[in-house]
Design a protein that fits this description.
Number of strands: 4
Helix content: 55-70%
Number of helices: 8
Distance between the termini: 87 Å
Strand content: 5-15%
Largest sheet: 2 strands, antiparallel
Oligomer: single chain
Length: 273
């Protein structure tokens, strides 16, 4: 028996058939514009955050390479100038993007860069004055005064919001840099810094443990903090027990082989040759 397939009439409408004066169509077109605007803003913030991350890492490397040298104050000044450049060239455009927006809506777009920046600033303050940078100070440095479009010759303050959670996570990353700083200082003949850093890390660990298990990311970083503290404690132990019998220039080699059981307290990557 012969099968006859009847063709179904086409029901799809082309763009020419869409009634652009229809209220529903106009609303969806407005939604499309709003979503495109926010997606574009998100991408611009992500790019700025990547630039902040790169520049902040460069600042940290600069301070690490010159730790314990006679020109440390000069290098710290260079590091601060670079931090100011990051604020003006990266965070100011970011603040303009976030002006009038809910900062938490775009927080994930710039969270990584913000945490890396806080780590760099906190490391600078430790090297400069052995103090911990405050949340208020971090936020103050990311507030900017710009011309206002409301009235002539008027100004307004805009800024990149720094949530307490991002501030704490940025400080957690600082502990790894402090551990490297303590180990590298031994190679330059500074045998006091490891003990200072060890006490500092113990205080930080106590503060983080008092906060409790806030998030999975926080738990991971606190675990890293404990590892960094153990490495510095192992270095201090080696200095106390064998420091007088080993030449200073050979202490780094001793740290490489410092082990308890099968756990290496000082990894190769933690020692800057």
């Amino acid at each position: 028996m012969e099968k006859i397939c009847a063709k179904k009439p086409k029901t799809g409408k082309t763009e020419k058939d869409i009634d652009k004066d229809n209220y529903i169509i106009q609303q969806f077109q407005e939604y499309q514009k709003d979503l495109d605007f926010r997606h574009d803003k998100h991408e611009r913030l992500v790019k700025l955050s990547r630039d902040v991350t790169i520049e902040s890492k460069r600042v940290i490397f600069l301070m690490q390479r010159n730790s314990g040298t006679d020109k440390n104050n000069e290098k710290l000044e260079q590091a601060w100038n670079k931090i100011r450049d990051v604020q003006e060239q990266k965070f100011l455009p970011m603040a303009k993007e976030l002006d009038g927006e809910d900062p938490y809506q775009f927080l994930r777009a710039y969270s990584a860069g913000l945490q890396e920046y806080i780590e760099a600033v906190a490391f600078y303050h430790y090297l400069k004055s052995k103090t911990l940078v405050s949340l208020d100070q971090v936020q103050s440095d990311l507030n900017f005064t710009v011309p206002s479009s409301d009235t002539e010759n008027s100004q307004k303050t805009i800024g990149v919001h720094v949530p307490p959670s991002e501030y704490i996570l940025g400080l957690a990353d600082l502990t790894g840099e402090l551990m490297r700083f303590a180990i590298n200082s031994v190679g330059s003949g500074d045998l006091d810094t490891p003990n200072e850093v060890c006490a500092y890390l113990r205080n930080m660990l106590g503060g983080f443990e008092s906060v409790g298990q806030v998030s999975r990311e926080m738990n991971r970083k606190v675990s890293t903090l404990r590892q960094s503290l153990r490495k510095v404690e192992a270095a201090c132990y080696t200095l106390q027990i064998r420091g007088s019998e080993i030449p200073k220039e050979m202490l780094k080699d001793v740290f490489r082989s410092a082990r308890v059981g099968e756990i290496s307290y000082l990894d190769e990557q933690d020692i800057d040759d």
